Amino acid sequence: MSESDTSKRAISERDDLEISRRRLLGTVGAAGAAGLVVGAVGGAGVSAAVSSDGTASANGAGGPAALTTVGSTEVMFHGKHQAGITTPLQSRGHLVAFDLAPGAGRKEAVALMRRWSATAKTLMAGKAPAQDTGVALDAGPSSLTVTFGFGRTFFDRTGLASRRPAGLDPLPAFSSDALDPRRSEGDLWVQIGADDALVAFHALRAVQKDAGDAARVRWQMNGFNRSAGATARPMTARNLMGQVDGTRNPKPADPDFDRRIFVPAGTTGAEAWIAGGSYAVVRRIRMLLDDWEKLSLDRQEKVIGRRKSDGAPLTGGTETTELDLDKRGPDGGTVIPDNAHARISAPEQNGGAAMLRRPFSFHDGIGPDGTPDAGLLFICWQADPLRGFVPVQRKLDRGDALSPFIRHEASGLFAVPGGPAEGEYVGQRLLEA
User: Fold this and answer.
1) 187, 245, 258, 400: the active-site residue
2) Is residue 185 within 8 Å of residue 80, measured between CB atoms?
């Protein structure tokens, strides 16, 4: 065999190996995407399906498509509720709050929400907006969601104070708060999530550019979760303390899910505009990881009230087994300690109060004292924060065993309108009523 033939054969073998590798990765990635889509509601869907040979077919039709991984997953912009609430957790996230610029009012807010909605719709479909930066070229929608909310001060600055909902009444102060006002609240809030870091950043950049002269960034935070397909099976996320976090979240299949999470569709009067919407409480919670990691495994589990390995209650069973709050150990004490986080935050301990937690973890480097600036970008959704977040946080504030290991450093409360219908922009029912 000639040197030329040997070289050609080597190139061919490498090409075959690369094609096989890509098909394998595509199949695994698509399986991860499918796992994330299971249980999604509110307009979430998949725009490509994977065939038996590892290639993709657009919308399940025959013929190959370019995307074979999580990049092909598209979440719908229009719907009863905004995307990013019941959408499965994405691996990357950005939270950003804006204040309207001095002199800007309702007219400027209308134009801004029109721009933002048009851009969000385009990006969530995996398309490039006008004058695109090119950051996300070649990527698909990657489960991108862009969610918009209004803060309490937005209504004063747009002359809509009479239509400000009671759900935006200020949150009470909590003893564990160490809030930085520069990183709290805001006239407008945007939540961005995607399963690709560049896609998420691309959306963030587009939103910031679209703000133009109408609004200025007040604060911005970056977060992450485990990537799709990183585990052998879909599972509840872990936080930076290593704990399974979100086990007892309300499920869309629960008969009272909509009542607890979304403002009723029949809402009338000045607050009719938020029917189908929700309220987001946003908290930057610093985890004192150096202190936490000094605890023994047994002590950590008693603080939480659950096993670290699988999230099951200390009273036994699996992750989804109900807490046995009355079970006692050989010493006569409750197996789940009286001040355990899981006990204190349980809905049955708080008059049935429930909220949909949908957080991102964050790590913003190492502080001057050598400790990690890391923790949880806590985001919870509810139909009424005074019946969801507030009663639970009040109880945690009075004696949660986890409190010495966390610090609440920023806070915000935002009214999030329902999803826009075809031809509408987000917030239109408020701004043009």
Assistant:
1) 245
2) no
